[in-house]
Amino acid sequence: MVHSALLLKQIPRFQTDLRLMLKFLEIRDFALVDHLSLQFREGLNLLTGETGSGKSIIVDALGLLAGAKARAEMVRTGFRKATVSGCFEGVERLRGLLEASGLEFDPEGIIVRREVVSDGKGRAFVNNQMVPVSFLRKLGSHCVDIHGQSDQQSLFSRDSQLQWLDLYGGHQAPLAEVGDLYAKREQRREQVRRLKLSEQERLRAIDLLSFQIDEIRKAGLSSPGEESQLLEERRLLSNADRLFQASHQAYADLYESDDSIGARLRQTGRLLEELGSLDARCRELREQFQSACISIEDVSLALREYVSRIEVNPSRLDRIEERLVEIDRLKRKYGESVEAVMAYGQRIERELRELREADRRVEAIEKELQSLDSDYLKRAESLSLQRKKAAERLERSMGKELGQLAMENTRFRVAFSSVPGRGGESASGSGAPGTARGTDVIDFLISPNPGEDLKILARIASGGEVSRIMLALKTIRSIDNRGKTLVFDEVDSGIGGRAADVVGRKLKFLSKANQVLCVTHLPQIASYADNHFHIEKRVEENRTVTRVARLDRESRVREIARMISGERVTDNVLKHAAELLNSASK
User: Which of 83, 150, 388, 521 is surrounded by the fewest CB atoms within 10 Å?
Assistant: First the structure.
């Protein structure tokens, strides 16, 4: 794997306005890919090839860099690890994000690397520094938008449609306020539910909690560190005989026995004293020797004191064993550690107090719940008004976009309704309906043909219509999110002819402000490419591999001709392919 700094130097910089974009992608041992290096450019980058050749593998690899979930089957058969690396340039706007996370920032670009191991685990890196996959998702949201078939299916979900509208309207702040109030309201509602248990259930809960509290109190847990202290004391008591024998023998060898080191040192000291009296040069040796003797004597005295403090106490050891058994029993019932058991005891003491004071607590919480209901509804109503204004803008924008996508007669509307309550009361069980996203339910409605009523999108839209509606929505969002790499996988599903041509032109339009990567099967769309890659599947040395090649003008004509007619490419088809390219370039 090429190091980040070297990789950045090897890849030529684009001559652009430094918008954030992907300029390099390297894949190793991923699915059918043994090794691919792709250099992307600004504008519209098209990936074409036969069905099953591996086009979507490249999209999946890019998804890993954006924080998608890794799976063991992504690793090429027979290999232990798959690696995907990508280089993004124009990253100045990401400086704050990286530096706030303690990562080095290089204005030349960001190298993102993801490793997937065959057991399903893996690692993620940004500029060669390991990061959690959650950070890749945060970083990826600034760098890449990947739109595939699953995105199109999400258009059929009311929740997804509401998310689309909130993203378009920029409702993140009011949505967070509504969500916080909803969470507090649900928490209070749960407290009321617990406190309003039937008398029989309440008494049973009081008995159970009282028993547990009494059991934990009787145990007399002194501190979170009690268990570790007992384990250390048990270790010393269990080895008391060995400790005594070793320390006593060491003391005897140093000081106490007839032939101890101390006795020998005293004899050596007398010899050095005699040497010093005869030769002054030896006096310094005697002084050094005396200093060493003092240190050895200190060790001897410390050993004697240590021997005197060694405790051989079988009864104390038995008590420790019993205490550890008791602590282990409490841990199995109430927590993974002494600290967790003590915390559990404190929590259930609070619950017991609440149950014993149920009536008074219910009254107080219900008053608070009424106030929360009122605040929630005010915020939810304000959010609903903002959504309706955003919906009007979205309807106008969608009318223009669909008109450009050969759906000029299609009407698009956002219909609003309210969140239903449960059993005649609110969804929260209090006096106000709603969810964490407010009180709105929306439906995207369309009427594809003049004179037809507006109907729910999921019930009447064809695959081609859904593809174009998705592209229109993505185009509208991209106007306010310039400078990302937009990836479209199979956005041409269910369309052809004139509609395919307008989708190609729309992708080309998007590529003016964003780098666009697109997987397509349609020659009309492929003809608009600024950078065209052909992907094919081969068998090499009895292994299936995927290969990618960037096409020049002549190769593009042949590839588009193949897309038009399949294997039977005639001169007329080649001429038609060349005309498509010429027309798209005007």
Answer: 150
Helical pair 283-309 and 261-278, crossing angle rounded to 10 deg: 160
C-alpha 418/C-alpha 416 separation (Å) is 7
**DSSP string covering 42-83, please?**
SSEEEEEESTTSSHHHHHHHHHHHTTPPP-GGGBPTT-SEEE
Residue 460 CB neighbours (<10 A): 16
Q: Between the CA of residue 90 and those of 139, 226, 385, 479, what are the distances in Å?
A: 14, 56, 37, 18
Strand partners, 535: 49, 548
Task: Determine which helix (DSSP H) or strand (DSSP E) holds 416, and give its type and residue range.
Answer: strand 411-418
pTM: 0.59
The C-alpha atoms of residue 41 and residue 517 are separated, in whole angstroms, by: 10
Q: What is the DSSP letter of 419?
A: P
What pLDDT is attached to residue 150?
63
pLDDT in tens, 83-97: 999 999 988 888 889
Task: Report domain extents, the chain.
Answer: 1-142+530-549, 226-332
CA dist 102 → 137, 413, 428 (Å)? 17, 46, 41
Pair of tokens at residue 13: 């910089």
Residue 482 has pLDDT above 60, yes or no: no
DSSP-derived 3-state class of residue 98: helix
CATH homologous superfamily, domain 1-142+530-549: P-loop containing nucleotide triphosphate hydrolases (3.40.50.300)
Residue type, 580: L
For residue 466, the tally of other CB atoms under 10 A from its CB is 22
The 8-class DSSP code of residue 422 comes to B
Q: How far apart are CA 325 and CA 35, in angstroms?
A: 57
CB-based contacts of 303: which residues, under 8 Å, 6+ apart?
A: 247, 250, 251, 254
CA distance 81 to 456: 46
Model confidence pLDDT, tens digit, residues 137-169: 989 888 888 876 666 666 778 888 898 899 889
DSSP 358-382: HHHHHHHHHHHHHHHHHHHHHHHHH
The 10s digit of each residue's pLDDT in 541-558 is 777 778 888 999 999 999
CA 541 to chain centroid, in Å, comes to 38
Q: Rounded to 10 degrees, what is the CA torsion of 6, 8, 11, 12?
A: -120
**Cα separation values, 413 from 24, 307, 396, 446, 456, Å:** 40, 89, 9, 6, 10
CA 358/CA 352 separation, integer angstroms: 10
Cα dihedral sign for 380, 385, 391, 393? negative
Indicate the residue type of 442. I
CA distance readout (Å), 132 to 123, 359, 399: 8, 47, 42
Distance, CA of 191 to chain centre = 32
Q: At 145, which helix (H) or strand (E)? A: strand 144-147
Tokens coding 419: 């969140």
Could you tell me whether strands 515-519 and 110-117 are parallel, antiparallel, or unpaired per DSSP bridges?
A: unpaired
Report the alpha-carbon distance of residue 373 to residue 384 in Å, rounded: 16
Residue 60 pLDDT > 50 = yes
Tell me if 528 sits within 8 A of 584, measured CB to CB. yes
3 state SS of 408: coil
What are the backbone angles phi and psi of residue 72, rounded to the nearest 5°?
A: -60, -35
